[in-house]
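Slide 14.
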Amino acid sequence: MIDIAYRPTLTSAREAHAAGELAAWSQAYLRGEGGNLGIADPLRRDDNVYVLGDVDLRDVYPCSGPDAGFDWPLPVDEYERKVAAMMEALEAGWDAPPLFVHMPTLLLADGTHRREALLRLGRERYWAVLWMNRPPLVGRGQSVFDEG
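Slide 15: predicted structure.
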């Protein structure tokens, strides 16, 4: 299990990554206060690969947001309150936890409010836990077709 003290921060995620414990850190974060059980369970698979990487915030695609076009629409007032609070916290030095991005699709699975707050503050890049299944669905010498 995780050898370092868990905290819901980017610094803690970096420490976990360096210790080879990013998967355990991710589960602790996603199951913690305000977590996201919707992705915590699927990420428990043994064949997931995790890396911590710097991403361009404009290249990731949120699945939730303040309008009906999102897979998980959020009430506009609630969304705006959370984004404003996060902007204030970031300006005060908050060590915000990384986003969670599915590596092959660039789907932003967790961190919609953090991403928006960062963008509104002029940040174009931030850290994300990037994950994918191993082996990838399509890759070197692999076929998407069943040869059976």
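Speaker note: The chain is about 30% helix and 20% strand.
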